[in-house]
Amino acid sequence: MKYFALLITMIFFCSISFVSASDQPAATPEYLLSVSFDIAKSRLDGVATLPVRGKQNLFFDVSGLTVTDVTLDDTQIPFSKSGDHIEVTPAGSGLLKISYNGFFYTPSDSSHIVDNTISAHGIFLTGLWYPLPRRTTIYRLKAILPEGYDAVSEADRIDSVAQRGKKEFTFTFDHPAERLNFIATDRFRISRERFGEIDLYAYFFDEDAGLVREYLQHAKAYLDLYQKMLGPYPYLRFSIVENILPTGYSMPTFTLLGKDVVKLPFIVKTSLGHEILHQWFGNSVYIDYERGNWAEGLTTYLADYLYAEKKGEGADYRKQIMIDYQSYVNKDNAFPLTDFRGRTDFPSKAIGYGKAAMIFHMLKNMTGEQRFRQALRGFIAANAFRKASWEDLISSFQSFSAENLKGFFAQWLERKDVPDIEAGTAVVRQKGDGYEISFELRQMNNPYSLTVPIAVYSGVKKEPVSVGIEKAVSPMVIYSRYLPDRIVIDEDYAIMRKLSRDEFPPVIARVLGDRLIVVVPPPSGKVYDSIIQFFADRGATIEKSADIGEATKTKTSFVVLGADNKALRHLGIFDWTGAVKSGFMIDVMRNPFNPDRVIVAIDSKSQEEADAAFPKILHYGKFSRLAFTDGKNILKEIETSTRGVAVKSETEAAAVHVPDMMGLSQVIGSVADKHIIYVGENHDSYANHAVQLETIKRLQASGKSIAIGMEMFQRPFQPVIDRYIAGSIDQKTFLKQTEYFSRWGFDYDLYKPILDFARGYKIPVIALNIEKEVVDAVARKGIDSLPAELKAKVPGSMDFSNDEYRASLKKIFAEHPTMQEHGFDFFYQSQLLWDETMAETASDYLSKNPGRQMIVLAGNGHLAFGFGIPRRTNRRDNLSYAVILNDVQPEKGIADYVVFPKHIEGSQPVRLMVLLAEEKGQLRISGFPENSISRKAGLAEGDVIVAIDGIPVHDISDVKICLLDKKRGEQVSVKVSRGYGSAAKELQFEITL
């Protein structure tokens, strides 16, 4: 039986079976092997003897061997060779002997796993080293070695006799097997202890003899654990054998561990127990590979997982199984468990080990611990020394379970996907003295039949509930004694399933299992050559341009090489410092443009650091962040992720401690020391603007040197604002030249008191916003579509990584059908462009004017939870800030303060009460509202307004500016042109407002 782990090149300790056996006939033939060695020549000479009865065709695999003679009862008989096989046809009964030899040489400095080698360092034969028959036999092995050598093979007893400088070994193994393995060297120091009825051996090299005691003590503990769990150990001896090659194998009666493997601290604590458990599963109950390998998942569950569970880490281990599965397995490489034969790569391991282990966990939860163990004992008893399949396991569990398990096994063994569960929003209603919670559980793929655990939290109280689902949509109604504040689906990972986005951390495993674009750095010599080649060999696209298109950003994962690579900023990753404290660093982050993908930033100080560290990342697939110096790991971190699928609900009302309520003056006083004070608004609320003005007045009166940042004005018009605040232009010029009415649109009276105050005290007013044309263009076709002159206006850094903000904007987008013509992604880009520009402008101003404090006036939506402007400004300058919002529903984290000002009835702007259409620099009347004062004064549909009070007008903003200072009851003179061409005439009308 061959259980191997590439522990030098890969971190996982893995097992794939050598032994298999079918149901044996009443008289299993004995196959005698006699072998001797010429170690200097890496040569093996052997004779295989097998009793035959009657004429028959016998086939032997002789790949890599030279057959020199075949006899029946010492009479030479012919044989034919085809490829790697020989065919022998004895004419009758007798003893068939096959004489053969083989040469097995591997360089002593090789770090690669090989099947066979014979050298002065030792003999390692786990491949084909004798003529292998097609049927199982009971092997009798004799081996002649130089004196001083010791040897191990499958055996309940090993005898040796020394004579004439040689040592002859006899191996007694009375169980049918399909093949043998053989290990020998003159370097062994043998230790033996008795454990119950078992002879326990350690074959270690002299230099590692100090490990023997720990290995034997742990072996006893594992044997004790599994004998109590599964029944007697199936053999009379067990040996832990150190090997010259980098292996982790398990065969009947011994495990074979490489000389580098035995030194790893985790081997004795986990992998040794895993290999001992294989003595039951795989080494005595054999695997029917044609119908699927069940042994790896079962051994993983009862060994590696069990050890984690005993340390209180069971849920974490189960979640890691799902992280690995989701990282490596996709629609292209997924397969059902019935097709699993052995681990060949990361995806097959995630299926055959991880997914299978979870099946046994779910099975134990269904049957209960006692019946689960009874079924395993029954399975072992019924299938000892014969092939067993998933069907045999199902039969055993069915015998000991009160439930029909066929449907359970059918869906988990035959399907190649896993459940994908989402939860709808919960509605909570009071019922009796408790609460009824209603929501939907949805399966996003073909439904499974599942028992789903749900946890309802009310403060510190937890009420666990289990529900059964088997449809695509399953309505849930559960009851809680207390008002729930949190509802979580499967928080302890009892079900093998797809993780939600929030549960799935960005880890290195996701890099190894995803399609990638690798963005190479600016010229950096050969620092990253081996890394580029690694990814290129795995099908990654190698990209030399750091300018990545918007469409591409959303479709894939990226590896960005070099901390100074501009691609990081294009991908929304800012201020990544790279290998500041180390020679090599790798950091896996969520792709801000598509959180289902990742961005991997790698930085190395030299080619030597990269070559020493990068090959080791395969050992650290569960981590998000690693740092190395001289190839030695100095940092390993995992990005935080949530536990379970959260059920959203609006269950708990926000509450205010009334005695703690304060007035606006106290709020202003409490934030007065902040560098930036954000004051939100509902744009059309006079009361909200009064709060903003009061904040400005009080801070100015306290002696602060302040500036006012305003969302309402766009950056190209800053010189106009400066001239107005300085008093060099009047209000009408200011409004005309800032294009206020066409670019913002809300009545100027809402903001006039603030600008009047700023003008009076010469307080700088900063236009924060980007031009409307840029935002509109991005909303239509995205940032990538912008021509060069507009693209130059886009902030140098934009952060797309806030999933909560994205979700809130998506909700707004869904509620406005008129926005949906160009798609959410472009809408999202336009909103972030708006936020990032205002943040950049504020940060730039403060960096140039460090003595100033800024009051930023913007809509509540740009400030709530800090998602919009505040965090984006802080990302740039790390300055202290506070957020004050007006008239919003209080929620945890929404702001530092929420103000509820009393209603103020603002002045209502006067109107001409006409509907206007701008046509080629003219304003034509297209209609009138009901009771229009202009219509009553004599204006008619089709008239073109030429002037108001003698001031020419060309667009709607001109009309609004002319009327700005007018009051109700005043008269205005309106000149119009009526008629077309030469028939047109000018008329003057007096209109009382």
Task: Please describe the structure with a list of short key phrases separated by commas or semicolons.
alpha+beta, Neutral Protease, domain 2, Zincin-like, single chain, eight-stranded mixed β-sheet, 993 residues, 27 helices, Immunoglobulin-like, seven-stranded mixed β-sheet, elongated
Structural commentary:
The protein is elongated, with a radius of gyration of 40 Å. Helix 3 (295-310) packs across helix 4. The chain has 27 helices and 50 strands. An 8-stranded mixed sheet has the order 5-4-8-2-1-12-15-14, with no helix packed on it. It has a 7-stranded mixed sheet with strand order 32-31-33-35-34-36-37. A 6-stranded parallel sheet has the order 41-40-42-39-43-44, with helices on both faces. The chain has 6 domains: 30-42 and 104-277, Zincin-like (2-Layer Sandwich); 287-401, Orthogonal Bundle (Neutral Protease, domain 2), CATH 1.10.390.10; 421-498, Immunoglobulin-like; 512-637, Chitobiase, domain 2, CATH 3.30.379; 658-899, Rossmann fold, CATH 3.40.50.11550; 915-992, PDZ domain (Pdz3 Domain). The chain is α+β, with helices and mostly antiparallel strands and 993 residues long. Helix 10 links the parallel strand 31 and strand 32 (541-543).
Please indicate the count of domains: 6
Strand order of the largest sheet: 5-4-8-2-1-12-15-14
Mean pLDDT across residues: 90
Beta-strand content estimate: 25-35%
Helix share, percent: 25-40%
Count every helix, treating DSSP H or I runs of 4 or more residues as helices. 27
Structural class: alpha+beta
Stretches where pLDDT is under 50 for at least 5 consecutive residues are 1-26
Task: Classify the oligomer.
Answer: single chain
Write the CATH fold name of the largest domain.
Rossmann fold
Supply the CATH architecture of the largest domain.
3-Layer(aba) Sandwich
- Roughly how many Å apart are the termini? 99 Å
